[in-house]
Amino acid sequence: MTGLGDVALLAAAGMLAGLVGTAGGITSLISYPALLAAGLPALAANVANIVALVACWPGSALASQPELRGKAPWLRRWVPLAALGGAAGSALLLSTPPGVFARVVPFLVAAGSLALLAQPRLALRHERRGSPDAVLPLGLTALSVYNGYFGAGSGVMILALLLVTAEPRLPAANALKNMLLGAGALVSAAGFAVFGPVDWAAVAPLAVGLFAGSTLGPLVTRRLPPGCCAGWSP
């Protein structure tokens, strides 16, 4: 972070990431490179990104009230699992040397990008073969751990998982996805705040942008054509 230019960059990137991420996914594929561009090292950028992502939770919740109505029992069942996965991912990140993360992050970004391309086909395969009862808990656990460790692409992967196993309507599945990601981010952020170095000067403008964008993302999803994700729904 060198000045007002970096602050403006992070705020703008945060708003775009919050809008796109809460409308479907790929938040970190926008916000994480912005943190690197602002001069943060790879590990510090990842920690700051995960902490700032907490700001998407209240914004998307406020904008998704129609979709979340009546979903409290479902959320009470699955939010704790997402939170535990986020805690495990952040613990893994904190327990490994910084050099390890710097070496694996290019592969994580590539994996997240490939997952975006592969998800519709994988979801269609699940649709044809059926979705065993274990798909949701196992998939959510694995993706929540990944989200707590790095998370690029995890939003769209969780969205596809929910469309296949839990909720066929895109706006409702997207709202549930945002709540699950928010729970994991909150637990991870708490761990980083206590045990890890957090660049709060970078977190603040990014979080402001993320919150602003996250109030718009669900509105965009609500207006998408019903068939736009037909390959994902059961």
Describe the structure.
The chain is mostly helical. The chain has one domain (4-229). Helices cover 79% and strands 0% of the residues. Helix 1 packs antiparallel against helix 2, helix 3 packs across helix 11 and helix 9 crosses helix 10 (170-195). Mean pLDDT is 85; it is low at 230-234. Pfam families: TauE. It is a multi-pass membrane protein. It is found in: Cell membrane; Membrane. One of its GO terms (cellular component) is plasma membrane. Belongs to the 4-toluene sulfonate uptake permease (TSUP) (TC 2.A.102) family.
Provide the number of structural domains: 1
Radius of gyration: 17 Å
Number of helices: 12
Low-confidence stretches: 230-234
Distance between the termini: 45 Å
Average pLDDT rating:
85
Q: What's the SSE pattern?
A: HHHHHHHHHHHH
Instruction: Tell me the overall shape.
Output: globular
Short description:
This protein has 234 residues and is mainly alpha-helical. It is built from 12 helices and no strands. The chain has helices spanning 4-23, 27-37, 42-52, 56-63, 65-68, 72-95, 98-129, 135-149, 154-165, 170-195, 200-214, 217-222.
